[in-house]
Specification:
The chain has 319 residues and is α/β, with parallel strands linked by helices. It has two domains: 166 residues, 3-Layer(aba) Sandwich (Rossmann fold), CATH 3.40.50.970; 133 residues, Rossmann fold (3-Layer(aba) Sandwich). It has 13 helices and 14 strands. It has a seven-stranded mixed sheet with strand order 3-2-4-5-7-6-12, sandwiched between helices. A five-stranded mixed sheet has the order 9-11-10-13-14, with helices on both faces. A two-stranded antiparallel sheet has the order 1-8. Helix 9 links the parallel strand 10 and strand 11. Helix 1 runs parallel beside helix 8, helix 4 packs parallel to helix 6 and helix 9 packs across helix 13.
Amino acid sequence: MSDLKMIPMRDGYGNALLKLCASNERVMVLDADVAKSTRTDWIKEKYPDRFIDMGISEQDMVGTASGMALGGMIPFCSTYGVFLAGRAWDQIRTTVCYNKLNVKLAGAHAGLSVGKDGATHQALEDVAIMRTLPNMTVIVPCDAVETEKATLAAAAMEGPCFIRFGREAVPVITDEKTPFRIGRARLVTGYDPEDMKHDSDCVVFANGPLVHEAVLAAASLAAEDIHITVYDLHTVKPLDCTTVIAAAEKAGRVVTAEEHQKAGGMGSAVAECLAEHCPVPMRIIGVDDTFGESGTPDELYDRYGLRAVNIEAAVKNLL
């Protein structure tokens, strides 16, 4: 898979906003003084009347977006995920979610991939914070193409939605024909649990850039006659518990992988589902109760164990 294109996920967000502004006059784009980083400067240049730079005031941005939503608009709030989920949490909780307002939240530069900006800018808790909020939809796409689809889908749905994506260019492993539905896990590779003719030694649920790492792990394990099924679990909330249960029942073992704290993220959501409906041996790949640090994305992925080899080791541990 070395010949895959490398495209920043934020490009997918920017492309989707351009399409939305061209097709839907209700869409407004707000940014907290990081427009170049979030690609909302593309909207500022082409549709200046649809763009508002709110300055470094995340709370005010969410409050303003809430008023727009009450007026029938579809506002997109764009800034770094650590600041959006952290600084504006009260406004998101009490104004947006409590009132079920149609506000879309784009948490950019999430995870460790923001690199040298260090721990203060690395959102590793944002999924946990957002998924606990009633009425909130949480999406973590795997590449630029899926980020574009997720943004378009968020605009089409009614109610609060948080879309999380990183800064760096990542391998593009989906295309225009790849299916995407909010709330529905996508089979990436391996065996469909409804196909009883095949067996899977373990099922891996991944999201964000770790979907690609899971695919690499699947190829490496297959060479050792270990066969895993990989799902892109892009929607953390509402979780596709039906697919999670079916795949877990079939494989009997589960590994989750995400660029987030182990606590409270997608792995926790899967564990909650399985604890109630299908308890099986499970391992969670993620950042283990620590803040990040400065370094290149590659260095940080290696240091915090977010690589294909870590997924492989977790599968073998379960076996």
